Amino acid sequence: MTSLAPDGPPRDRYTGLIDRYRDRLPLQRDTAAISLGEGDTPLIPLSNIPIVRDRDVSLYAKYEGLNPTASFKDRGMTVAVTKAIEDGSRAVICASTGNTSASAAAYAARAGMAAFVLIPEGKIALGKLAQAMMHGALVIQIKGNFDAGMALVKKIADEAPVTLVNSVNPYRIQGQKTAAFEIIEQLGGVPDFHCLPVGNAGNITAHWIGYCEYSSAAGDHTTAACAFCQGNCALLARKVVDHRPKMVGYQATGAAPFLRGELLDHPETIATAIRIGRPQSWEQAWSASRESHGWFDELTDDEILAAQKLLARSEGIFCEPASAISVAGALRDIEKGTIPPGSRVVCTLTGHGLKDPDTAIGQSTAPTTVEAEMAAVQRVILENMK
Ligand code: F0G
C-alpha cells in the first residue's frame, strides 16, 4: 500500500534528492525543486575481480553515471539551480572539464534560465560537449585550461547578475553530500574506506560532510522524526553508523597537486575530467583526508585505462576514465594491504563511459568488416573462437 509522506509525494515513488532529503538541505520548505529525478543511484557489488575475492574485501561501486545527465554533478546542480531560482537569478555560469557544463546546461534549461559555460578548447569529451550544446547553453571554448576558466567565471559572477554553479557554490556541495547518505542507507552501515577521483576536490569535500552529518545525527538520534530515515529509524536505532570512513582520493600522475603538495600550472592526463592543477576546495579536501585518516595517491594514465577496461569487461560497468581511477587505486591498495582484508570499500564511479566514446574506441579492437554473407560471418566467428 502506498503511504503518503506528510507533505510530499508517495514514499514509494522516488522523485529526486531534494524531496528525499529536503530537511537536510538549505532550501525553503515550499520552493519547488528543479529536478530530473537525480540521486538514488545503484551501489553495485564488484565480485568478479580475483584480488577482491582473494582478500575477502567487500568492494562496491556507487554508479553515479546513472544520474540524469550521466554524472554525479546532478546532485549538486539540482540544489544549486533550485536555490538560484529561489534567489531570483535568471542565469548560471560555470567553468568545466565537461560534466559540470552538461549538468548546468540541463538544469538551467529545465528552470528556464540561461547557461554560460567555459570549457578548455579540445580538452573535453565529445558526449559532454554534445550535452551542453543540445541543452542550449552558450558554450565558450577558451584557449586555456579549466583553472584559467575558473578564474574567469569567478570574476564574471562577482560583477554580473549570474549565479556561479561550480562547486565553490556551497549549494553544490550540499547536494553532493547526499551520495554519502545513500551509501549508508544502501549498505546498512558505513564503509571502512571511500575511494574517489579528485579534481577540483568538491566531491571528496561533499562526501566527508555527508558522512559527518549522518554520524552526528546518529549520535543525537532520539526521535522517530528523523530526516534521514523519515520515520523508519531502524538503521540509526541499531547504531550501525558508529564510525566514519577513511577518505581516499586518487589523482592522475600528470595532474596531482595533492601529491605534489602544491598547485600546478600545467596539469595533463587522458582523464580530461580531472585535468585540474588548482583545485578550488584545496583546504577542505586536505581536512577531509586528515580528519578521516585517509590519504591521496596517484595513478598513471595507463593504470586508469586498464581499470576502465577491467570494469567494462569483468563487471559490465562502463564508466569514464576519471571515474575508473577510484577502482584502479582501490585495487592497488587492496593488493598492497593499505586497504586490509575484510574491509568494506566503496568506490565512486563519477561519470558514464558514454561521455567519452573516443577514449573507449581508441583502446578497443576495431570492428571486423565482412561481406553480408553467411560464409564470411562464419569464418570470422570461427577464427575468433580459436
Ligand atoms: N570525475 C568526473 C567524471 C568529473 O567530471 C570530475 C570533475 C571529477 C571526477 C572530480 O570531481 O572536481 O569534485 O574533485 N569534473 C568537473 C567538471 C571539474 O567541470 O565537470 P571534483
- Tell me, rounded to a whole number, the average pLDDT: 93
Structural class of the secondary elements?
Answer: alpha/beta
Strand order of the largest sheet: 1-2-10-7-8-9
The geometry reads as: globular
Instruction: Note the total helix count.
Output: 16
Number of strands: 10
The main sheet comes to: 6 strands, mixed
Identify the bound ligands. ligand F0G
Radius of gyration in whole Å, from Cα? 21 Å
- Bin the strand percentage: 5-15%
Low-confidence stretches: none
How do the SSEs run, as a string of H and E?
A: HEHEHEHEHEHEHHEHHEHHEHHEHH
Kindly report how far apart the N and C termini lie: 55 Å
Helix content: 40-55%
Care to describe what's here?
- The chain has helices spanning 17-21, 50-54, 73-86, 99-111, 126-134, 146-159, 170-176, 178-187, 202-220, 234-237, 257-260, 282-291, 301-315, 321-336, 357-362, 374-385; strands spanning 43-45, 58-63, 91-95, 114-120, 138-142, 163-164, 193-197, 246-252, 295-299, 344-349.
- Strands 1-2-10-7-8-9 form a 6-stranded mixed beta sheet, sandwiched between helices. It has a 4-stranded parallel beta sheet with strand order 5-4-3-6.
- It contains 16 helices and 10 strands.
- The chain starts with 16 loop residues before the first helix and ends with a helix.
- It is globular and about 65 Å long.
- The mean pLDDT is 93.
- The protein is an alpha/beta fold and 386 residues long.
- The relative contact order is 0.14.
- The structure holds ligand F0G.
